[in-house]
Design a protein that fits this description.
Radius of gyration: 19 Å
Number of domains: 1
Oligomer: single chain
Structural class: mainly alpha
Number of strands: 0
Largest sheet: none
Number of helices: 3
Keywords: Membrane, Transmembrane, Transmembrane helix
Length: about 120
């Protein structure tokens, strides 16, 4: 154990940030699955007859997983910086999740702005 408690605060702050990410993912899943889908008559196009759960899993696998990995990498770096300055585990974990979300939004904006 580190005498200053930085190592234990880092782990708990990361757990708080993971909790925020789990909350957002759960909210997206509940929101997506609770909307009824209109009946589709034409199933000739690829992926046109997927259920809402199958669509959610497909988008999550190919779109959400890389974004989540990027968020976790940025969160780990930001948490390492914040935990040395902020003694509150909840505040440092929440701030690192917010900063990571803003960084992700900026990267997405730059990426989408170029295409």
């Amino acid at each position: 154990m580190d005498p200053t408690g930085v190592r234990s605060n880092y782990g708990r702050s990361m757990a708080v940030a993971f909790g925020w990410y789990a909350t957002v993912v759960a909210a997206l899943a509940v929101g997506t699955l609770s909307v009824p889908s209109a009946p589709q008559d034409d199933c000739t196009a690829m992926f046109s007859c997927l259920s809402p759960l199958e669509k959610l899993l497909l988008v999550g696998l190919f779109g959400g997983a890389p974004v989540l990995v990027g968020l976790l990498i940025v969160t780990a770096a930001v948490t390492a910086l914040l935990v040395r300055r902020i003694s509150s585990v909840v505040l440092s974990g929440t701030l690192s999740a917010v900063v990571s979300g803003v960084a992700c939004a900026l990267v997405a904006g730059v990426y989408l702005g170029r295409s």
